[in-house]
Amino acid sequence: MSSRNNPNRIKSHRSYTVIEASELLGVNPKTVRNWIRAGLPIADEKRPLLIDGADLRIFLKQKRKTYLQQCETHEMYCFKCKQPQLPDADSLQFIAKPAGMVAMTGHCCECGCRANKYVSWRDLDNISQKLGRKLPKAEKHLNL
Ligand SMILES: [Zn+2]
C-alpha cells in the first residue's frame, strides 16, 4: 500500500478543511464528507467544516482496523459491493507465497468482481470447509 490514505501524514495539532484533508490523503472530497457522515467529528457546524487532525487520525486508524476485521476467514472484501462477500468456490485459486502465506483470489459470488486476499496456510482447511468444498484444482500450486 502506498502513502495514500495514510493516517501518519496527518498532523494532530492542526485542523483541516474537507478539501485539505482530501488532498493530503489522496482521496475524493466526497469520501471525506462520507467519513463525516459516518462519524468523523468536526470542529463545529460553521463553513468551511474543520476537521481536527487528531480526530482524523484516530478515525482513519479505527476505520482501517474495522476494515481488516470485517471479513471472516472465508470471506473476501469486494470493492464493488463494498462489503465482505463469499467468493464463488469454483473461481477460487490459492497460490503459495513465502512465510506461510497464501494468496487467495476469486470472484465475488454476488457481482462476479475479482477479489484478492492473503490468508495463512493454516486457515486453508477452515476456508475450504466453510465454503463446503475441497480445495480446487489450484492445489497443484500448493504442492511445491
Ligand atoms: Zn461483489
Description:
The chain has 144 residues and is of the alpha+beta class. It contains five helices and seven strands, in the order E-H-H-E-H-E-E-E-E-E-H-H. A three-stranded antiparallel β-sheet has the order 5-6-7. It has a two-stranded antiparallel sheet with strand order 1-2. Strand 5 and strand 6 form a beta hairpin. Helix 1 (18-25) packs across helix 2 (29-37). The longest helix has 18 residues, at 53-70. It is elongated. The mean pLDDT is 84. The structure holds zinc ion. InterPro entries: DNA-bd_dom_put_sf, HTH_17, WH-like_DNA-bd_sf. This is Helix-turn-helix domain protein. It holds the Pfam family HTH_17.
Spell the H/E element sequence.
Answer: EHHEHEEEEEHH
Give the terminus-to-terminus CA distance.
28 Å
CATH architecture of the largest domain: Beta Barrel
Whole-number total of structural domains: 2
Using the coordinates shown, work out and report the CATH topology of the largest domain: OB fold (Dihydrolipoamide Acetyltransferase, E2P)
Strand order in space, largest sheet: 5-6-7
Total count of helical runs of at least 4 residues = 5
What is the residue-mean pLDDT, rounded to a whole number?
84
Q: Got a strand count? A: 7
Low-confidence stretches: none
Q: Name the overall outline.
A: elongated
Integer-rounded radius of gyration: 19 Å
Structural class of the helices, strands and pairings? alpha+beta
Question: What is the highest CATH level, the class of the largest domain?
Answer: Mainly Beta
Bound molecules: zinc ion
